[in-house]
User: What shape does this take?
Amino acid sequence: MAPWSVERVLQLAPDAASVKAGRALASAAKWPVLGASADAVWGACQGSGKAPYQTVVELAEPAFRCSCPSRKFPCKHAVGLLLLWAGGVVDDADAPEWVGAWLAERSARARRAELKAESVKAPDPVAASKRAAQRVDRVSGGVAELSVWLGDQVGRGLGGLERGGRLELSGVAARMVDAQAPGLASGLRRAAQLVGRGKEWPGKLLEELSLLHVLVEAFPRLKELPEALAETVRARLGFVTDTADVREKGVRVTDRWLVAGLVDDEGDQLITRRVWLRGLGTGRAALVLSFAPLGRPLDFSLFPGSVVPGTLAFYPGALPLRALVVEREEPVVAARPYGDSVAVALGSYAAALALDPWVERWPVVLSDVVPASTPETWLLSDVDGDALPLVSGFDPLPLLAVSAGRPLTVAAEWSGAGLRPLSCWDGERPVLL
Amino acid sequence: MKGWDELVATALLGTQRRPVDTAALPPKVRGLLPGGDATGELLTAAALMTGYRRAGRVAARDADPVPVAAVDERPLVPSAARQRLAGLLTARDPDLLDEWLLLVERRGLRVPPERLPALVSAARDRVASRSLTASVAGPLSEWLAEVNPEWEFLAAHAKATGEDDVWRYGTTPQRTRWLASALATDPERARAELASAWRSEPAQVRVEFLTALGSALTPEDDLFLETVLDDRAQQVRKLAAELLQGLPASGLATRMADRVRALVSVQHRGPRREVLVVTLPEECDEELRRDGVVATPPKGGPRAWWLRQIVAAAPMSAWAGFAPNPEALLRMRVEGCDEALLRESWAVAAARQREVSWARALLDADPDGPQRAGLVAALPREQWAEAVGRLATRASSAHLSEVVVALPRPWPAELGTALLDWLVVRPDERAVAAAARVIARAVPPVCLNHPLTTGPLPEDVSPWRRQLVETLNFRREMHEELR
Assistant: This one.
């Protein structure tokens, strides 16, 4: 396999300290044993202990293993080893026994997992459908409860929520988790964050609650809805389509996928990583989600600023956006893509809303925009003078400096709150923001 | 939007208290309403309006585009160096960052613009790096200063050269910067401008200007500085006196020399038995205070304190009449005052005046004496390695570290090699660790291949030694990436 770029390696490091430590270890003198094959890179590094640490990186996933006691993942040895490899100083070699053993063990484990998945899949259709029916019952209960609660709130007035409303909403959210409707729960948690914030909060809260109301109304009528819309409602309620089903039945699109950017959302215990893709041939938008507990590394196989030729399988729904990577080839650096004007981007968002009124964020690529400002906010303005505001809390200065007042192409996430730029191009060079 | 505001108003008060008024809603939205109970109607209407409003969002039209910066034609720094910059910005190691910036500036490269905000923020807290940062930011400096008022200092550095308006209408940092650069390029005009503007400037500005002048001092500045000794502000007077003390031919220096000659004599008490007899000053009069002598001692007796200041301020030439050379003077016994006091004051004066023969004599007499750092720095650069080498055999690690820190960079190669050799054989002490940190960052690039960096590190190596090797390797890679 061709070595990765240093940038891609550094993206793996869990923190800045690991980058520093990894760089320090990226010197061939520190590695008495070094080698690479098509599947893996390995080495033995002299550490503070008596025996050298043995480090292996399996490149496909990638997966890491090191005999050092570090709890960081990947550890500095793995980062240093990959940096050496990226620098082109690791020669191809036959894997020593300890490397071969681990790789073999991994592939055996993967096979076992596959077998297990197959055996689980078959198991007992009666039990499975019973479980599914139980869940539908529970969700129905939750939906009914939420329907009554929503009616009570607007009957008595949302003004009553100004005091203690956050707690109340979080409580209802927790009950929706118990009712196995996590989608409703997250809508309620979002609503809880709105209460009392800024002058506009009653309107924003009403928006959020009204969209929940529509979900609640739609659930009992799932069978009457068009199939794709029914899937969207199910997904918004929190029913997750099995990835195996997506791989098997999801609509597949093959294209050269521009990795437009990624955003990590830190929750209480979980980080959600949103990676936005855009098909350079089809113009299609896709969202690849990955999750990891706090402090654990996230999926970094889709590196922003690159183009990955490959095939995605989309989750079902009226607006298929979320997708899985089914097949991919080696990424290449992304040249500046074609983008849209603000008017066209807003039009695409309106079209998306028509298909899925609950869509929160919509990916856009704007071309020839310049940073602009009003007394209240920073914006991006296109050649027609149409401008969209940036979300508050986003640091506009790096984007400003790249632009220097001249038009540039920007990939961003659009939501009602504004644009959140993800990447832009300095000439033909992609820049992550 | 009226229809929506109606819905929000009702939702806020509650449908029990306020009717749902859908009259103002767009007809197409109204047509979709199901009727039924009030709460259901309100929530459905709100959901429809949410989609309606989101889908119908229009772009803002009143935004002012940011100004356009001049084009930066320099080629972008290569990829490996860009990645190193990302690491440097998080590492909080100003020395290494400055070295990187200097290399980029010398090669005439453009830094990745998305890193400029972080670079400029880093320079905000490090005044010494500001002009380097402004130069690296190139045509973008002024633009960045315009976009973010907190970065105004960038404009001061960018505008400083060339534009004469800056001297008349600029801010104090801009004007100081103009003065400093004009003192180098057109010294006569710079001094004329300074003299004509002098009296109307506030005290703090006078201090800034005087500091700038201090870095470009010539014997001709004596006349101007002499007038400044009568300045209104004490801080300004003090600074002028200090500057004049560094000018051995100044009026102030001459007066100090006269005072020395009045207080000191040599008595011959037999062959090779010469004694330096010192009389302590009787009083600290108006004239002495005008020349920068402080009347009240921080501790101890005032007369010794006055002597200390007079000797430290007097030109070394004042001592020429007492002995053929500094060595001979240093061999004499001293009466009338503490010998250590005299030596310390000589050392202060020699370091300040960069008197090579005195610096050498004082270091020969005691390589580990007072002011050793300033004295070594007063020697010609090619003698540093030797002086530091002698110091290394005698002085404590702490004292050597202190000298090492004070030596201005760039260092000659011999000094770098000598210090790295010294580190190799040092035991692990805290003071050595501190010196190693400085040495790792200060040795010139040719020393970065020192044998220290190539051999494998022993298992039980101490953290500072490991860091030393890592820093040297880091710098070598940095130089290779920007070769």
Remarks:
- Chain B has a mean pLDDT of 88.
- Chain B touches chain A through 69 residues (CB under 8 Å).
